[in-house]
Write a structure and sequence with these properties.
Blueprint lengths: L8 E2 L7 E2 L8 H7 E7 L3 E6 L2 E10 L6 H13 L10 E8 L2 H14 L3 H8 L6 E8 L3 E2 L8 H19 L1 E4 L6 E3 L5 E3 L3 E4 L4 E2 L2 E2 L3 H12 L4
Antiparallel strand pairs: 1-2, 3-4, 4-5, 5-7, 6-7, 8-10, 9-12, 10-11, 13-14
Helix pairs in contact: 5-6
Length: 230
């Protein structure tokens, strides 16, 4: 039943799901209630635990960062596609965009203080100002990050991630880039999951003169980024 969570649902209580009032969409207040401690960060994003479930993470990004244009593209991509159940794309259970307010910024900063050792660095990643446009989404936590699944060879894992990227590109019309090991992983069942990436419109994106929607191109990219010979 846990897999049925979507934007209009809340699963705070231990007995199961409860609809949000009037079946409304989740907002940043809901995300702040769900948010546990700081877990880790990327170059332009901060990840928090979901205090209700060890199988979920909350990603927070600031769309108004001057040097983080990829945040806009990724937020728009998930806003458009998170409910489409695209094989290979990380499962997203709730999504919101919002305008930063002082109370929200204070609450989020306190969450960082509770769990992060380098508080200044983490707050600088989000670089929040009042009225910045931001986004959060609740997503699955993969069991294995990178090419680390114990029951699969590196060649098998690279093929699975390439297939996932190719399927996402085919379904959405975008080419995925920046497919380094920390941006994808695997579930216990061996299925590949891509949860972080940059985007380019596939029809306009060429790499070494070839269309990056090709499975072989993705495979080459992933292999090169992982420094793995296959």
């Amino acid at each position: 039943m846990r897999e049925l969570l979507y934007m209009g649902y809340d699963y705070d209580n231990k007995d199961g799901f409860a609809k949000l009032p009037d079946n409304r969409q989740a907002n940043y207040g809901d995300f702040l209630r769900w948010m546990g401690q700081y877990v880790f960060n990327g170059e332009y994003a901060v990840i928090f635990a979901d205090k209700r479930s060890p199988y979920r993470l909350i990603k927070v990004i600031n769309l108004d960062l001057t040097d983080g244009d990829s945040n806009w593209g990724q937020a728009d991509f998930f806003e458009e596609n998170w409910q489409k159940d695209i094989e290979g794309l990380v499962k997203v259970y709730a999504f919101t965009k919002f305008i930063a307010t002082k109370p929200m910024m204070l609450t989020l900063t306190n969450k960082i203080i509770e769990g992060a050792s380098n508080i200044i660095k983490i707050t600088q990643i989000l670089d929040m100002d009042e009225n910045d446009e931001m986004s959060m989404w609740l997503m699955e936590k993969v069991d294995y990050v990178g090419l680390t699944h114990p029951d699969l060879s590196k060649t098998e894992m690279i093929d699975l991630v390439a297939s996932a990227a190719h399927n996402i590109g085919t379904r959405t019309g975008y080419a995925l880039t920046d497919l380094k090991p920390q941006n994808y992983g695997f579930r216990n069942d061996g299925s590949a999951v891509i949860f972080d990436f940059n985007l380019e419109v596939a029809e306009q994106n060429y790499w070494m003169g070839r269309d990056m929607k090709s499975f072989e191109d993705y495979k080459y990219m992933i292999t090169s980024a992982s420094n793995t010979k296959v």
